[in-house]
Amino acid sequence: MALARGKRGPSQTIPATKARIHFGELLRRVYKNGEHLTIEKDGLPIATLLSHTEYEQLRRSAALRELDGLNRSINREMQAKGITEEQALADFEKTKQLVFEEKYGRAVKNRKRKA
User: Fold this and answer.
1) What is the pTM of this model?
2) pLDDT digits over 58-70, tens only?
3) 10 Å Cβ neighbour count for 12?
4) 23-40: string of b/e by CB count within 10 Å (b at 16+)?
5) Which CATH architecture is the domain 3-50 placed in?
């Protein structure tokens, strides 16, 4: 088994059979030591065991990258069409109002609450 030290703790490659037999111990290692364990079957990496916290961080990072890409794409399209940010926000507010009216049947007016 190869052991390579990474930024977030050691990483080790384990055959699937050994992972199956020692699964509880592997979970403990991941949880307590922050290890990353790659599980191989027939010499091919199939899965990686890592802490739930690190998994959520990876998911968040991927979502932020995707959001950033969408934002850049929208900005390019707006520039190509000559739409300003103010125009886009005004169109968004109009669309939001129309969707609300469609869903609830009437527009919401800015009302002052009674004290």
Assistant:
1) 0.60
2) 999 999 999 999 9
3) 17
4) eeebeebbeeeebbbbbb
5) 3-Layer(aba) Sandwich (3.40)
